Structure formats: structure tokens, C-alpha cells
Amino acid sequence: MTPILRALFAALTTLAAPQAAFAAQAPPASMKGLVLHASHRDVLEVELGGSRFHYVAPFSKLPFLIWPDAARGVRPFEHDREAVRGWIARHAGALGSTGLRPVFDKTARWRRNMVWVYRFEREGVRLHGARVEVHWHEGELQGLLNVLPGPIKSFDAATSVEGTEDVSRVWYPMRRGAGGRDGVDLVRARVVTKTDATHVRTSYHTPSGELIKTVVATAPGAVQPPAPAYQWKEYTTGSFPDQIDSDSAGDIWFSQPLNDQIQVFDPVSETFQIIATGNDDPDGLAVDSKDRVWSGLYVYGRGMGRIDVATHNYTVFPPPYPGAYMAIPFETCGGSIWVSDHQVNRVSEFDPVSETWLGDYEMPTPACWIVDTTEDPLTQTLFFTEYDVNQLGMKTPGGPIVDIPVSWGGPSFHVFSGGKVYYTLWIGDALGAYDVDSGTYTEYQHPVSGETGGPIGRLSNGDVAVGSRNAGYVFIFHVATETWHSYKIPTSNPGLKDGLHVDANDVVWVTESGVGQLGKLDLQSDAPAPLTLAVSGSCPGTVTGTVGGATPGGQVGFLFARITGSANVPCGMQCGGRQLGLGPRVRLVAIGTADANGDVIATGIAPVLACGGYLQAIDLSSCRQGEVKQIPQ
């Protein structure tokens, strides 16, 4: 096509066919964090009203993160709210909002950007969850975020008979295919809101009455308990610290993919050591129960790396399939290592003992962008987050991977606690929770609006720690009361990404990737106290274990081993996989129920072989542990 014809075609056509950019421009630095792993995405081009834009489209064919071509230097619209609204309306076909009316909603902030937020409505009824964000910095357009669940295929205005509850209506997108890639059908959903002294619970239902999801927010005026005593401390690490974990000595390990290295931090001496990995681009990181550091190597065909904590020896294990870009490892209760591959859409299992791959599995939904892995240690069921299609994957032992649709908003990182999978939403300011038994999911609104989800961790009592990615907070979600505590990271806009870890003492560590820092949040009073354990009697003979500080009415397990060490709670029981202070061949010797004061007494006859051995108690409701005590002789 000649330049003249190209210009004429652009003038006559609102949307040119998307194409891979010949000289693709990276997203603006101020907006890059709005897409998970944006730097690994294909960048496309589109002409909108004569202006060239670059974009990435993780969720469907619709442009999602959109930014103007810097070489053109032409502003597609003026810095005027009505002008922007008109531009969004004129390009509804390209943006996927045909049949919807954009309405200016509010002004917000994303890090250093000023953001104009536009919502959509049809026939005076809003579309749930959809928006267009227009990002400005010092009056200059940075780009747009087009948050639509997929191309709209139909509008169904059917309604059911309303009850006497507090009922309203919204358009709700019902996804076709995986994650809405085949489009969405908008239905007039029934919204029921119930408010009490502490919470507002909003449930969304199809016209036929089927529950879609529930959203829980703190009630206006609810009295929140003050944040307990805590202390922040930050340390300079160098460029882009990423995923993070700790070893049995309490040292903190984190990857630095941009520097091809892994660092270890000693919290006592407050010193760092660097372990070079050649040009291996170590991405995700996990320290297993045997003090081996594992990292997915985000280099074509390289595989997975391992560092021995004691010697710092570095070993690479080639992948079980060609073209791998291995990413985030995870140790299961049984001791094997599972590692995700975002780009090749696979997850693999590795046996650290035989140093062989046990299998690799293609995700059932193509290009789902599998992020990481977590596990229910009681059933040894694995779960995977699938960011691009807004799903969880679930794999029971010996079974296939099954997909589970969950909240639209980019589920990214997750933990298992109390029968639920808690997952963060990369473009949503809420924590998702999938109930394994009921098959339903709930969203818990973050205590600070506009703070989108990022990394996640689990405290010893089952509460959940969430790192937010805007101004930067650590939120603690108390699962029993569905309440929050908020802890602002001292450095503003720290650029949290993948890294949050809760260590054995319930200290929360975060990697502040955007500013090259390591953050330490000591929850001092918010962290649950350990159990107390007293052992009396004589061996061989009658021995009594007395536990204090347990969950009232909850069960407490008494575990025995001949020596101390760092073995795990056995798989198949509550808290399976948790590291103990006992040595190998751990046995469960008694279970007791705590009284109203949290006290438990267990008495038994200890044989000769138990004399001089060790006991440790674990609260099976919260997974809190007590110190190790020797059996008297």
C-alpha cells in the first residue's frame, strides 16, 4: 500500500487490523505494572482516529493496555474530560464497548499518574466492573487501560420477580469460553445488599436466581480495631529484587533477574551475599524444607536452578520439554517441586531426591498464563492461578488439571487457608476467595480503595498477608472476622510486584521491585503468640503434655520424634507440610481438644524407645506451634 493510500485508509476506517509492531515500543514506565509480566507480552499496533497506538491484549482480542506512539508526537484528544468521553464513544468498536455509553466516574491516582476513570452504562443501568482509565502525568497523556471482560455478543434484559430485599440491577458480563475470549453476554443481574454493623455484603444473581458471586466490604462507620504495634525497616538491595523466601536459619533469599543473580540477606548482621547464576535470569524463587533454593530460569530452554544454602553451589536442571521459560517453583507437602511456565503454558513436577522430572502437564486452556502454585496439604490437591483467563486450575493426586472460573480481574498469586484458595487480583482492589467445598467465590474489598492486588502470603494462624501495588501497603486479612489491618510501606510507590513472604516468626518481607529495596514488617503484636508446652512425668511410664494458648474448642496435635531437626508435619493431616522443630520420622502420638481458655492436657504411657525423645504441639486450627520439649527420663 502506498503512503497516500495508507493515509486515506486510516482516515476512512476507525480501526485498522491489529498487527505486530515493526518497531514495538515498550509500555510507558508509569503504566507497565498494570499488566502482569508486561515486558514478556506481544506488543501490537492499532490506528484509532488517525493516531497510532501500541497495545497488549492479555485477556481477549480487545486492546487492554494502550499507549500512543511516541514517534508520532500527536495527542489523540485534548486534556478535557468531555473530549475524552467523546473519543471513547467514537471508538467503541475498537474498544469493545459498542452499545454502551461511557460516563465520567471519578479522578484517581496510579502511582505518579493522575487517572480519569470512565464507567459504562446502558439504558441507565451500569455495567459491573468495566471501566476505561485515562492516565496523565503533568498534563501529558501516558495511555489508557481498557478494562472490559471481552467482546460483547448480546444484551439480555430479562428480569426475574424482585423480592422484598434491598434489590437493584446491573449489567453483568457472563463469559463465553475460557475467560471471555469468545465474548461475553450481558445480563440484567439482580443485586442484593445486606448491611450490618461491620460489613456490607453484596451478592450478584442471574435473572433466574443463580448466585454469581459475593462482594464483602467494610461497613461505613464500622469501628475498626486499631493496628497493633508494628515496625517497618527497609534495606537497599540493588536493581529489581523479585521473588522471596527464607531458609531454616531465618536468612532471606530473593531473586534479581535483571542482574542474573540471587541474593541472601542475614537479618541479624543485616548483610547481603550475592550468588551469580551466569546469564540464567532467575525469576521465581522458593526455599524448600531441606534448605535448597529453587528458581525458574527465564531463559529459552534453560530449565530450573538450585542453590545449596550451606555451600552456595549452583546447579541447573534442563527442562523436560523444548523451548521452556520456567518461572515460579513451589514445594509440595510431599517434597516434590512444581514449577510454572507462563509462556509455554505448562507446569512440571521435579523430584529433588532422584533429580529427575516426574512429569509435565499442559494447561487445559491454551495461553492461560499460569502464574504460580499452592496446595491443600490435607488432600494434596494443587491449585494454579491462570491470569489471562481469570481461572484457577485444580489438580487432585493422579487426576487431570481442571479449570475453575473465578473473579474477573487477573488472578495472580494465591495461598490455601482454611478450605479456601485466597488469590490476589492484579487489576482489582479486592482479595478473591474460592471455597473448595461449595464451589463459590467471594471478593473482599481492600481497606484502601485503588490499591490493586499483588503478592500474597499466609501467617501461621491462617490469616492472609497481601501486598498492594499502587501507593504500596501490606494488608493483613483476618479470615475469622473478615476484617483488615493496613500497614503503609514507608517508601511511597515502592513498585511491589511478585515478592511477599511470611517467615517462621510471622515477620512479613516484601521486595520493593520498583525502588530496589527489601522491606521488613515486624508485626510484633499482630502476630499470633506461639503455643506453650510443658512436659512432665517420667519415662518409661506416664508422661503428660500440657498446652496453653490454643484456639478454644480447636484440636491440638502432639508430635514426637527421636531427635530435633526441621522435618515437616506429615502430609494428609491438617497443617501438613509445615516445618517443625523435630527431626525425621515424625509421628502424631495424641490429639486433644482445647477448653474455653485454650488449654489442652494429654496423658499417655511412654515406652523405653521414647525416652529422651522430643515432643512438639501444633494447633490444628491455626497451624501455630510451640517450642520443642524433651521427654524426661
Whole-number radius of gyration? Answer: 26 Å
Q: Count the helices. How many? A: 3
Level of helix content?
under 10%
CATH class of the largest domain: Mainly Beta
Strand content: over 45%
Largest sheet: 9 strands, antiparallel
Question: What's the pLDDT, averaged over the residues?
Answer: 90
Query: What's the architecture of the largest domain, going by CATH?
Result: 7 Propeller
3D architecture notes:
This protein folds into 4 domains: 3-148, no CATH class; 153-218, no CATH class; 231-522, Methylamine Dehydrogenase, Chain H (7 Propeller); 532-630, Immunoglobulin-like (Sandwich), CATH 2.60.40. Helices cover 4% and strands 46% of the residues. The chain has 3 helices and 49 strands. A hairpin with a 4-residue loop joins β26 and β27.
Q: Which labels suit this protein?
A:
633 residues, mainly beta, 4 domains, 46% strand, disordered N terminus
Write the layout of secondary structure elements.
Blueprint: H1 3-12, E1 19-20, E2 44-48, E3 51-56, E4 65-68, H2 81-90, H3 92-95, E5 101-110, E6 113-122, E7 125-126, E8 131-137, E9 140-147, E10 152-156, E11 167-175, E12 184-195, E13 199-205, E14 211-218, E15 231-236, E16 244-246, E17 252-256, E18 261-266, E19 271-276, E20 282-287, E21 292-297, E22 303-308, E23 314-317, E24 329-331, E25 337-341, E26 346-351, E27 356-362, E28 370-376, E29 381-386, E30 391-395, E31 401-405, E32 411-417, E33 420-425, E34 430-435, E35 441-445, E36 453-458, E37 464-468, E38 473-478, E39 483-488, E40 500-502, E41 508-512, E42 517-522, E43 532-537, E44 541-548, E45 555-561, E46 587-593, E47 600-606, E48 614-619, E49 629-630
Parallel strand pairs: 10-12, 14-35
Antiparallel strand pairs: 1-2, 2-3, 3-4, 4-9, 5-6, 6-7, 6-8, 8-9, 11-12, 12-13, 13-14, 15-42, 16-17, 17-18, 18-19, 20-21, 21-22, 22-23, 24-25, 25-26, 26-27, 28-29, 29-30, 30-31, 32-33, 33-34, 34-35, 36-37, 37-38, 38-39, 40-41, 41-42, 43-44, 44-47, 45-46, 45-48, 48-49
